[in-house]
Amino acid sequence: MGISVNRKTGADLETCACRTELRSQRGSLYILFAAAMVIMSGVVFAVTFFSMQCATAPFMIEESESSPTLDMSRDRIITREEWHAAEAKYVKQLRHPTPFVEISHTATPACYSPVKCSARMKNIQDYHMSTEIGLPDIGYSFVLGGDGNVYEGRGWDATTMHIGFVKQCNIGISLIGNFVSDTPTNGQLKAVKDLIELGVKLGKIDENYKLVAMNETINTMSPGSVLYGIIKKWPHFWTPSKDDIGACPDTIYELD
């Protein structure tokens, strides 16, 4: 019996190689498909998980020095103790209700958080009480930060640094910032109105008060043309004439 030898031609070998390559490609496709399914499942799970977290967790806004639209506790008055005010050298009592509310600006950089605005208050007080200026305290009754908070200056019961015909008979409200070209925040503007309304309710400000800009009392750019253009449209805004200008009533006495 002869021996049978199976001989493959070149064509047969090429066909076999092609089949092997196809099987290899199919296997790679199966692996890629399975990996894609795993990735997609992970993405779906992650989206679902974070959606549930957002639905149940409170929305937090990170406080930023560059966020002029921060809506904070606008009705809160931050006391002198809270912003670490120095003690006044002396105080002159303001009799109530006072007939004038004077608006000014601090002509300093703006601030948009309690930390930054408290530091600004300290800087302003230090400057006002320095030998260069020589005031007994920070010059304003209240100061309004870009965060919409009210910062207590001399408060309701002490006279302010404002002079001219409103000297010793005004509540002085100053907005932190320089409003020759900048615009005060909505929080600051609302705080001005709310503070005046509170002063009237407390009997500190006359219900028929006159709202005046600082540049109507002395030669100054304060409160800045932008802020001036805003408050001149408010009720009680008053532009004095020469006949109106006179000394305030004798409404003060010095505290012991």
Describe this entry's structure for a reader.
- The chain is of the alpha/beta class.
- The protein is 33% helix and 14% strand.
- The protein is built from 4 helices and 8 strands.
- The strands form 2 sheets. Strands 1-5-4-6-3-7 form a 6-stranded mixed sheet, sandwiched between helices. The chain has a two-stranded antiparallel ribbon with strand order 2-8.
- The longest helix has 47 residues, at 10-56.
- It is elongated and about 95 Å long.
- The model is unreliable at 1-11, 13-18, 47-74 and 251-256 (pLDDT under 50).
Q: Tell me the number of strands.
A: 8
Kindly estimate the percentage of residues that lie in beta strands according to DSSP. 5-15%
Which geometry do the CA atoms define? Answer: elongated
Helix content: 25-40%
Cα-to-Cα separation, first versus last residue: 139 Å
The string of secondary-structure elements, in order, is HEEEHEEEHEHE
Largest sheet, if any? Answer: 6 strands, mixed
Which residue ranges are poorly predicted, with pLDDT under 50 across at least 5 consecutive positions?
A: 1-11, 13-18, 47-74, 251-256
- How many individual helices? 4
Radius of gyration: 36 Å
Structural class category: alpha/beta
Would you kindly provide a brief summary of this structure?
The chain has 256 residues and is of the alpha/beta class. The protein contains four helices and eight strands; from the N terminus they run H-E-E-E-H-E-E-E-H-E-H-E.
